[in-house]
Write a structure and sequence with these properties.
The chain folds into 3 domains: 147 residues, Beta-Lactamase (2-Layer Sandwich), CATH 3.30.450; 84 residues, Helix Hairpins, CATH 1.10.287; 150 residues, 2-Layer Sandwich (Heat Shock Protein 90). It is rod-shaped. By secondary structure, the chain is α+β, with helices and mostly antiparallel strands. Helix 1 runs antiparallel to helix 3, helix 5 packs parallel to helix 9 and helix 7 packs antiparallel against helix 9. The protein is 57% helix and 17% strand. Strand 1 and strand 2 form a beta hairpin.
Amino acid sequence: MKFHWKIFLTMTSTVVGISIIFITLTHLIVKNAIDAGINETRGKEVGLLTNKLSNYYLDNKYSWDKLQQFNLLQDIHQENPSIIVMDSNQNVICYLGDSPETLITHLGIHKEIMINEQIVGQFFYYDPEVANLNKIMIGIPISVVIILLVSGALLILISLIITYQLSRWLASPLRALLPVIEQLGKGEFGVQTNVNTHDEYGKIANAINVMSTKLEQAEKARQNLTADVAHELRTPLTIIGGKLDSLQQQGKMIPPETLLPLQDELIRLNQLVEDLRTLSLAEAGELPLKKEPTNMADLAKKLLAAMEQIAEEKGISIQLDVLTNQTTISADANRIKQVLVNLLTNAIRFTPSPGAIYLRLFNENDQYLTVIVQDTGIGISPEHLPHLFDRFYRVDEARSRVSGGTGLGLAIAKQYVLSHNGILEVQSNLNQGSRFIIRLPY
């Protein structure tokens, strides 16, 4: 069943149910009001007759014999009163007055006679005024019911029309979302909805649009990953294959130095495969970490001492600024060291001489130790920043090829930081240097 029909039937049932309850309650209230009016008007007479009959029944030893001879109406001062008395078997035992029996039983006041909580008889009292009141009592509820039924039917009809339109209006955004969801289910990523409302439907549509965009990006990343892996593997495999073919055709003894280029390519292949394996483990949250208290200031000092000579050869100075005493965190020192090595190596590579690199440690908000690697290098164009941590992404393709990088360094660095529940961000402007910010929880 369609959604808008479910809404329509639900609201219709609610409207009909409320209307029936309203009609029933109104009828009962009017009827009880008229009954109360009749009892107020003839309560004295009915009470007098009830007492007389009860006393007669008790005085006559629980019998109605000769009741017809007892003048029940002598103290009733109404015009043309009449009464019919019946025993417990509904047999008429007394009939006084000039009014027809049918008129008395239909328009008279009915009262049961109770002795010791048992019904021993009943009577119907009638006079012309009571008849008029009962006619009103019969006519008013019927009139009220007819009016309520007619007005209720009109109300229900109007409500049904409004409900139908309302259900279609409520379901219309879903009808716009369904084709997009079906397309996503078929693998057509990137499709967008046209729901532009500012309510919950709009939020759902926006979430679907974002999800569709991310799925498209993920699919493109998957396709690019396959192509990139094939491309990265092709170069060393081609070199190895070509060298081996050449050596086989020569048919000579192979000197050791001839095998060195092949060994270099094999090392590069092994490094690529290991990087991919490590990155996959990190992204799956299965990267083994040996966390222990690590003093980041000491780690940074040792790292800069090892890299200082490389930087000086390029005419670049490296400066360490420790701006907090809280430099100890729980971390895998080797993984964090690889992150810093990657960032510092990139900073040295892309900072021209004379230049400077700054490594700063400070306590930002007592929750994270913030580590910043900042350089005065060539910077990064804004269009590259969103993809900087993607696999195999190179800002400068030619430069990265020459340097022998696999394009996985920053992707691995970010996953290492995320594995420590940390944050890795980048800020950069072209020709103004780059600033990598690492936040690691204490």
